[in-house]
Design brief:
The protein is α/β, with parallel strands linked by helices. The chain has helices at 13-27, 60-78, 106-109, 116-132, 141-151, 174-184, 203-211, 231-239, 257-263, 278-285, 298-302, 314-325, 328-342, 347-362, and strands at 33-37, 48-52, 83-85, 98-102, 135-138, 158-160, 191-194, 220-223, 246-250, 266-269, 289-293, 307-309. The chain has a six-stranded parallel sheet, with helices on both faces. A four-stranded parallel sheet has the order 3-4-5-6, sandwiched between helices. Strands 1-2 form a two-stranded parallel ribbon. Helix 6 packs across helix 9 (257-263), helix 7 runs parallel beside helix 8 and helix 10 packs across helix 13. It is globular and about 65 Å long. The model is unreliable at 3-10 (pLDDT under 50).
């Protein structure tokens, strides 16, 4: 799932894999790391030994074949002591013990967001994988709770390892941000959303809340690639006659995102479900005030630094946006507390905790904590 291509598929899980691989070698230098992948452009940091497959594992049937049949053989051939499968599913026939990362259970909660084969595969194999794994890594306490409640996994078997935030997400010099605004034709003030255009991101309700703001409202800029069922989003903008005020920036390369966050007055992310919720963390790290939802892991990420709103309450979302946009002191307070909150998340810390999970899995008796 590691992808260096531009597009929404290179975000999320691919970003997690890329960031973790960058920090693992320096975290435990006594360990040797072999990476199985099919991304020929990836070079990696020193300390990683790359095993690049020619198989097109970006295609689901090929990926399943690789994951369940060929990977166990490759691990045995390379003398691997512990496998880390970084996205939901491990090789069930493997004689090598494995750790599996579960990012969320959206394939259960939002099955229509997945193609039939992928959804069916995850529904069956994710459950068996977390039961078969020596350790399970959950990216949030919220995801851990879902694993315990839905799959009946022992909490003692699950290690919570929060995602980190890249050092590039930071407050930038005012002149650099001003130059970016001018280059992109952006106004001095605007409200920002970053995320794939899909139902669970709750963009339709964000647009409806934005329409309730006073007429002097700043523009709303939606950054993100088209995912699925996005026609309703564009249709709602037209129906509410907001075409001149709501702007679709499309997919933005990761290296440009810090500038977008820095340029915005307010970041709003009313998602109905997140395994972790990286965009609010990135926005806080850039010193931008954040409004997000009370759903799933988002309160865990934002803490007391942002305003939390019921994702089903359009009026409450509109009121929160109006309050922050109209109160400069509150905005500055949220910016300061957001920087402190974001400081508690780093990929170095995530890599260190991931290595701790490997060690538990390799310690006789320690990794096997119930189902």
């Amino acid at each position: 799932l590691l992808s260096l291509s531009e597009g929404y598929r290179s975000a999320g899980i691919s970003s997690y894999i890329f960031s973790l691989l960058r920090h693992l070698p320096a975290t435990a230098t006594e360990m040797e790391y072999t990476v199985f992948l099919n991304e020929t452009r990836y070079k990696g940091p020193p300390g990683l030994r790359l095993q690049v497959s020619r198989l097109p594992t970006n295609r689901p049937p090929v990926r399943i074949l690789w994951e369940q049949a060929l990977l166990p053989r490759a691990a045995r051939r390379e003398g691997i002591d512990i496998l880390h499968n970084m996205a939901f599913v491990g090789p069930l026939a493997s004689t090598c013990p494995f750790v599996v990362t579960v990012h969320d259970l959206s394939f259960l909660f939002y099955p229509h967001s997945f193609r039939t084969l992928r959804r069916s595969y995850l529904r069956v194999f994710a459950r068996m994988s977390v039961r078969r794994a020596r350790r399970v890594i959950a990216v949030s306490e919220s995801t851990k709770h879902d694993l315990v409640e839905i799959y009946g996994i022992s909490p003692a078997k699950i290690d919570v390892v929060h995602n980190g935030v890249d050092a590039s997400f930071q407050p930038l010099p005012a002149d650099q941000v001003a130059a970016f605004r001018q280059q992109r034709g952006l106004p001095d003030r605007f409200v920002l959303f970053v995320g794939t255009l899909e139902p669970r991101k709750n963009v339709v309700r964000l647009i409806e809340a934005y329409a309730k703001l006073p007429q002097e409202r700043p523009p709303l800029v939606l950054v993100g690639g088209k995912g699925w069922f996005y026609d309703e989003i564009f249709g709602r903008v037209e129906a509410l006659e907001l075409t001149g005020e709501v702007h679709f920036a499309g997919f933005v390369p990761a290296e440009d995102l810090p500038l977008w966050y820095n340029a915005a007055d307010l970041f709003v992310y009313p998602s109905t479900y997140e395994g972790f919720g990286l965009p609010p963390l990135e926005a806080m790290a850039c010193g931008t005030a954040v409004i997000t939802s009370t759903a799933s892991s988002l309160p865990e990420v934002v803490g007391k630094a942002g305003q939390l709103v019921d994702p089903s309450d359009t009026d409450a979302l509109a009121a929160a946006m109006e309050q922050v946009l109209g109160n400069k002191d509150l905005q500055e307070q949220m910016q300061a507390t957001g920087l402190v909150q974001a400081g508690g998340f780093s990929w170095k810390k995530a890599a260190r905790q991931t290595v701790d999970s490997y060690r538990r899995a390799l310690t006789p008796g320690e990794g096997r904590q119930g189902v």
